[in-house]
Design a protein that fits this description.
Regulatory protein RecX; Arc Repressor Mutant, subunit A; RecX_HTH_2nd; WH-like_DNA-bd_sf; RecX_HTH_3rd; cytoplasm
Length: 144
């Protein structure tokens, strides 16, 4: 049985979901492909439009926001997936997400409509929203 080429394997990954170039590179390295073959495959996929970091970033922001994650956490995760800072910044600015509304929605879904009664509840809700990646301003707004 002939093993699949780096390009074929990368196309298989991309068929399931968008991947950043760095993510694909790591997966192909783990699969045992040679570095020069990986670079050639990525170049080919980028030229044909099958792999595009900008499209990946847009899809990633959309999917993570739908799952209730805030701007800070999404930025951090994209950085870990090898997306360039400039691309993260531009894509986040273009994202049509109301982060304040999302923070309120996430807090209400988890803790109910009522504002926290005491300091302990308030601190618990703040920690939760911080973990989810919302800014201090968004958290404060959602608690009022």
């Amino acid at each position: 049985m002939k093993s699949r080429s780096a390009t074929e394997q990368a196309v298989g990954y991309l068929a399931r979901r968008e991947h950043s170039a760095v993510e694909l590179q790591q997966k192909l390295q783990q699969a045992g492909h040679e570095t020069d073959k990986i670079h050639a495959a990525l170049e080919k996929l980028q030229q044909s439009g099958l792999q595009n970091d900008e499209r990946f970033a847009e899809a990633f922001i959309r999917s993570r926001a739908l799952r209730g994650y805030g701007e800070l956490r999404i930025r951090q995760e994209m950085k870990q997936k090898g997306v360039a800072d400039e691309l993260i910044n531009s894509t986040m600015q273009q994202a049509e997400t109301d982060w304040f509304a999302l923070a309120i929605e996430v807090r209400c879904k988890r803790f109910g409509e009522q504002s926290p009664d005491d300091f302990k509840d308030r601190a618990k809700q703040m920690r939760f929203l911080q973990y989810r990646g919302f800014t201090h301003e968004q958290i404060t707004e959602s608690l009022n």
